[in-house]
Amino acid sequence: MAVHQRIDDTFISDPPRTLTLDEFEFASGERISPFQIVYETYGALAEDRSNAILVCHALSPSAHAAGVYSSDDERPGWWDGMIGYDKPIDLERWFVICVNFPGSCWGTTGPSSIDPTTGKPYGSSYPWISIDDMVRAERLVVEHLGINRLHAVVGGSLGGMQVLMWAALHPEMIRRIVAMAAAAAVPVEGIGWHVIGRKIIEADEDFNGGDYYDNPAPLRGLEVARMVGHMTYLSLEALEEKFGRRRRHGTRQFEIDSYFEHQGRKFADSYDANSYIRVQAAMDEMDLEEQYGSLQDAFRNWTGPSLLISFTTDWLFPPDEVAKVHEALVSLGRPAQLLEIDTPRGHDAFLIDFDLTGGPTRDFLEASDE
């Protein structure tokens, strides 16, 4: 079934593909016309279309989840440690889809895209998105590929929140789910950090209410907001190990300051501020208990197996928040596994600790549905 050329520990992936719609309607009722959705696929789809797995990406990544486009690429896709040949999501067996969701700046029509009616970027006029919108875009691509039912939907962080929304909205379209470092809602501590970051962007004079595209310089507000975000991705153990109170090359600058400056500049050079505040706000707005009345009602129609993975040092989605989803599923009599992984890597563990997450994910995906 292998269809990709292997190279070192990865493979040459196909270029992104585009689904062009006459119109996309957001959950808010707002519409954009026309609308493009960018996605990538890996592996080969079985004749009966039974081996498809949808991988949902988080805030900053794109649809490029695995592989490299050429041998000259410096880095493979963001989940290359999970997806590939002889990897947990094995492309010898599975056909993988990853969709760039609305609001992102990685190809799907977003705030930085050109509005054909004005000839300028949508900017501040771009709708405020929701997780429902992300799931709708993914569903449209899945249906476009002629797939009626997915073997699994898998993701971490914001991607894991999309996984849970899939189970609530379209349980008939999926057999099983894997959600890592994600819960049914962002707890208040996480919202607090997010709000601070968004206010820093909005306070930047160059942000100009979201219409800043005439200024080619990266926004300092976005740089600093990303620094704030990194505090939710790391853990106390990781901070001590990586930086401690060490200074940089004998100067007064702390190593953690240098790291944050580097990460902030790198992020602001490539990401869009309007996308950042919209995608992050969508993350904060999702609350399945609020939307459905209770988590039990949210998952009432979901009957498939679930694998929920939390990390002991995750500040953004502490294990107790993930356990709430597990408790709701168990109370409904649903087959649900809760795996709490002990790691010092914090929230970022879902992007790094493949030696800890890979085996359980592989076993879960390959288990019999009976």
Explain this structure.
The structure is a single chain. By secondary structure, this protein is of the alpha/beta class. Helices cover 35% and strands 18% of the residues. It has twelve helices and 16 strands. The chain has helices spanning 131-144, 158-169, 188-203, 220-233, 236-242, 255-270, 273-285, 288-292, 295-298, 319-331, 349-352, 354-366; strands at residues 6-7, 10-11, 17-21, 24-25, 31-32, 35-42, 52-56, 83-84, 89-90, 95-99, 114-115, 120-121, 150-156, 174-180, 306-311, 336-341. The longest helix has 16 residues, at 188-203. It is globular.
Strand content: 15-25%
Gyration radius from CA atoms, angstroms: 20 Å
Structural class: alpha/beta
Main-sheet strand order equals: 3-6-10-7-13-14-15-16
Average predicted confidence as pLDDT: 96
Give the fraction of residues assigned to helices. Answer: 25-40%
Largest sheet: 8 strands, mixed
What sort of overall outline do the alpha carbons produce when their principal axes are compared? globular
Number of helices: 12
Task: Give a summary of the structure in a few sentences.
By secondary structure, the protein is an alpha/beta fold.
What is the strand and helix layout of this fold?
Blueprint: E1 6-7, E2 10-11, E3 17-21, E4 24-25, E5 31-32, E6 35-42, E7 52-56, E8 83-84, E9 89-90, E10 95-99, E11 114-115, E12 120-121, H1 131-144, E13 150-156, H2 158-169, E14 174-180, H3 188-203, H4 220-233, H5 236-242, H6 255-270, H7 273-285, H8 288-292, H9 295-298, E15 306-311, H10 319-331, E16 336-341, H11 349-352, H12 354-366
Parallel strand pairs: 7-10, 7-13, 8-9, 13-14, 14-15, 15-16
Antiparallel strand pairs: 1-2, 3-6, 4-5, 6-10, 11-12
Helix pairs in contact: 1-2, 3-4, 3-7, 4-6
